[in-house]
Design goal:
Layout: E1 12-13, E2 20-21, E3 27-28, E4 32-34, E5 49-51, E6 55-56
Bound molecules: zinc ion (2 copies).
């Protein structure tokens, strides 16, 4: 896979949109919150994992949305 920015061999894939990026163009994305495990009981507050420094291509636009 090639970097979307320069065409060099990619070393990572954007966590948000799936574009491939090389080590030069990889960015640190916004904090990423992963949903809780499906087995979480409904009466407990949903737990999640926050990932800081996720791989980001820097090209896609990431924004927070409210829970449905
Ligand atoms: Zn690149
Ligand atoms: Zn992206």
């Amino acid at each position: 896979m090639k970097c979307v920015a320069c065409g060099q061999e990619a070393v990572a894939v954007c966590r948000f949109c799936g574009r491939a990026v090389c080590s030069e163009h990889v960015c640190q994305g916004p904090a990423l919150v992963l949903p809780a495990a499906p087995s979480t009981p409904a009466d407990k507050p949903a737990a999640g994992l926050q990932v800081d420094g996720a791989v980001w291509c820097g090209l896609c636009h990431v924004k927070a949305i409210g829970r449905a």
